[in-house]
Structures are given as structure tokens and as C-alpha cells.
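> example.struct
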């Protein structure tokens, strides 16, 4: 069972850049807060259902789509590791 969530520095930087983009574009943090909430909900779902989404061609990496974004993650016995947060546009 997953008991710990780890975001790699790559994933954190990608998420930060996306949120900063929306803050500047919309001149508001409203959309960014909504996106963070959706990310949090998906991560909580992954904690209980880590193998529900498809494997990628990269070893042990799975992905889930969240609107225009993909969360790439790896699961171990006790960790869910978010390796990338990708904007698909």
C-alpha cells in the first residue's frame, strides 16, 4: 500500500511553470487553485488505485490524463513517485 507521495524535482518544476503561466495569463490564481485541487484529487485516487492507469513505454512508469495534462508516475511497495507533470498542448 502506498504510504508516501514523492514529487521529483522535474515534476515540481513542470507543475510550477504551468501554474505560473496560468496565474500570469488570467491575472488571477483561481484557475491555478482549481488545477491544484484536481491534481490533489487524482493523486489521492492513485494512492488507493495505483495500477488502474496504463503503463508507458518507459519501464515501470504509468500515466493518467487530467484535462490537458498528464501525470507520469511510478509505484513501489510504499511510494507513489510523480516523475513528470506534462502539458499536452
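> example.seq
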Amino acid at each position: 500500500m502506498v504510504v508516501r507521495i514523492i514529487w521529483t524535482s522535474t515534476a515540481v518544476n513542470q507543475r510550477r511553470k504551468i501554474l505560473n503561466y496560468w496565474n500570469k495569463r488570467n491575472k488571477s490564481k483561481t484557475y491555478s487553485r482549481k488545477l491544484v485541487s484536481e491534481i490533489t484529487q487524482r493523486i489521492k485516487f492513485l494512492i488507493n488505485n495505483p495500477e488502474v492507469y496504463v503503463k508507458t513505454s518507459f519501464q515501470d512508469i504509468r500515466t493518467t490524463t487530467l484535462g490537458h495534462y498528464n501525470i507520469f508516475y511510478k509505484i513501489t511497495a510504499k511510494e507513489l513517485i510523480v516523475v513528470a507533470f506534462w502539458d499536452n498542448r
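> remarks
Residues 4-87 form a domain with the YaeB-like fold fold (CATH 3.30.2310.20).
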